[in-house]
Design goal:
Layout lengths: L10 E4 L5 E7 L6 E2 L1 H11 L7 E6 L2 E2 L1 H10 L2 E3 L1 H8 L4 H5 L17
Parallel strand pairs: 2-4, 3-5, 4-6
Antiparallel strand pairs: 1-2
Helix pairs in contact: 1-2
Amino acid sequence: MGAANDLGADVMGRLPDGRKLVVQCKRYAKHHTVGSPDLQKFNGTARSEHGADVPLFVASCKFTKQARAFAAHHGLVLVDVDLLGFWNSGTALSALLDLDIGRSGTNRKLAPDN
């Protein structure tokens, strides 16, 4: 996984409840944004090629408003630079999966799990 011809799957695994997780990661400068074309590509392969129950797109920057709307409409989970920090600090992935995608990365206040 994570190679040039990975068809959008950098990581694949199973959640504790058995659902298949497919993750696409993008490392961009903080001033960059991820737009809906990147999510459209990922959406086109996550379920059909990899059988994802939970397609998760992780980025080291923000998602555009259009990208968040596309993700909400198609059931993609987004983790932006802010949420990535929470995840890295111990917030359980399951808590991030339940966030409102349309607002992901905008004024979210989460506390790391203890």
